[in-house]
Amino acid sequence: MQCDENMDSILSDTSKVLGTYDRELDKAFKRGNLLASSILNDYSMRVETLISTTDRILSDINTSLTLRLKLFQEDVDKFGNLRMMRAQKLTKFFYRILEFAIVVVLWSIWFIVSVVKWVKYIAIFSIKIVVWMIW
Questions:
Q1: How many Å apart are CA 123 and CA 117, to the nearest integer?
Q2: CA geometry: angle at 58 spanning 53 and 62, to 5°?
Q3: What is the mean pLDDT of each successive set of 10 residues along the chain, which is 135 residues long?
Q4: Cα(93)–Cα(106) distance, rounded to whole angstroms?
Q5: Domain contains 118
Q6: How far apart are CA 108 and CA 118, in angstroms?
Q7: Residue 115 counted as domain residue
Q8: Spatial distance between the Cα atoms of 31 and 25, rounded to a whole number of angstroms
Q9: What is the pLDDT of residue 2?
């Protein structure tokens, strides 16, 4: 019987200790859940802020790079047009020189042919005069 009485007392003490342990464990769980919840809320807000800031910065960088690329392409087009205009001026200059050379050659040929033609007429006229005098 003494074993039964001791058992009841042991069970009662054990039950009290387990109850205290359960209450303390519940407090620890509540506190842990509260800390985890506050940490998650705090970090989730920070992460969302970081994501939105990063997105805005990347958007600004993308816009700036696009603008710079557009300005660069316009500068390249301007330089290409300037080079094309200079090339066109140079081409026009060479075409004018070529045109002038062709005109000079053709006028020279015309002059030579005209001189030869006059020499031929003079020669024929001289021969006719000589033949007329001899006959």
A1: 10
A2: 150
A3: 67 86 90 86 83 89 90 80 69 90 95 94 92 85
A4: 20
A5: no
A6: 15
A7: no
A8: 10
A9: 53
**Is residue 69, in this structure, part of any structural domain at all?**
yes
Asked if residue 50 belongs to a domain, the reply is yes
Element (H, E) at 104: helix 2-134
Give the Cα separation of 128 and 135 in Å (integer). 10
User: What pLDDT score does 1 carry?
Assistant: 45
Query: How far apart are the C-alpha atoms of 125 and 114, rounded to whole Å?
Result: 16
Tokens representing 69 are 């690329």
Spatial separation of the C-alpha atoms in residues 135 and 127, rounded to whole Å: 12
Amino acid at 66: T
Q: Which domain holds residue 62?
A: 1-98
The total of structural domains in the chain comes to 1
14 in helix, strand or coil?
helix
Q: How far is CA 36 from CA 25, 27, 30, 41, 96, in A?
A: 16, 14, 10, 8, 87
Locate 101 and state its tokens.
Answer: 């050379």
Retrieve residue 121's tokens.
Answer: 């007429």
